[in-house]
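Step 1: inspect the first sequence and its tokens.
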Amino acid sequence: MQRIVVLVPWLVVSILFGVLTKMLDSVPFLGDVFTRMGIWVLIATCIAAYSQTALRAAIHTLLFFLGMLTGYYLYSAHLFGVYSTNDMKYWGIVAVVTPFLAVVVWYAKHGRCLACFLPALPMGLMLSLSLGIGLFYLDVNYLEEFIMYIILCVIFYRNSKQLTIVIVLSVMVTSVIELTPLSWFFMF
């Protein structure tokens, strides 16, 4: 019962965060950053990595995203009377998948053997969100997401050898995402 009491404020704060996010849509710089996926990957990674257990990481990220989406879309409906059901479906699917990804992130941060390669998954995703990669070019499309990539390097850092391996693997994950149809899912 005590654990449920702790989760209720977590859900309320996430609903308020969703309303705040909708309010930030009209602020020039912040509206752009909070519209893209990078900030949500960073927030979910922080929630999962700093949770006490893998189960708590899964529950906390699920509640955060469900509450945030609830606040965001209820406030949107209040302001405009309508909202995009396609956007809602997309972000709803993302919210439902986050507990599984949160467990991966938790083990990436806390697992001994897994810390050498699992961090490459969220880091590779973040790098793919920041870079434009083609057959003959590489460009930083979003500097903010690249800074978030560096923050992820700090979050998952154990030692220089581990970080070097993870960075190399994250570049490989980025290449897979960018050069396959996976990039269409993350373009949203």
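Step 2: inspect the second sequence and its tokens, then contrast the two.
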Amino acid sequence: MSRVLPVVAFLPTLAALSSAPAHADDFGCKVLLCILNPQGWASVGECVPPLMRAFRMVAHGEPWPQCPEAGSSGRIGYEKFKPCPDDTIAVSPDAESSGSHNSSSLQTVYKPDSNGAFCAPRNATNASWGTYPRGSGYGTRPTSAVTPRERRTEPNYLDLTTTDGKQRFWFNLSRYQ
């Protein structure tokens, strides 16, 4: 019942904006009301056109529409990957030279990187994962424990700050370019 009440309160406000004469700020406020709908913006037919327009605007380099009357602000961001599972960290491959000058070879190692495309076990004693040649003094840190990081289907986000706090909304801008 508590989820129904916000939607019921939301619909008359949206209807009033839809039927009111257009003003410069109405678009940003309509987008704000729609994105805050607890049932999702796509669940209300009147929300689909303004949100699609807002996404197209952002996809083409314009800022997220604002609603000054609501005291809200939005910041757009991008995260290609989902977080690594518990007890693992994000890593990226890197080439390191090993051996002496006469018999030097490149080895692939994985080093911590918050934007890395792979996940590796969290291990405070190892700064990297990779296989080093015998006698190099480094030992072996198995790369089999390194796994690809899961990609987000909706990598773009909007951090929306209102008087009620901050919320993050995920979406995919590639659909609107």
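Step 3: confirm your contrast with the notes below.
The helical segments are 4-19, 26-35, 48-59. The two ends are 39 Å apart (CA to CA).
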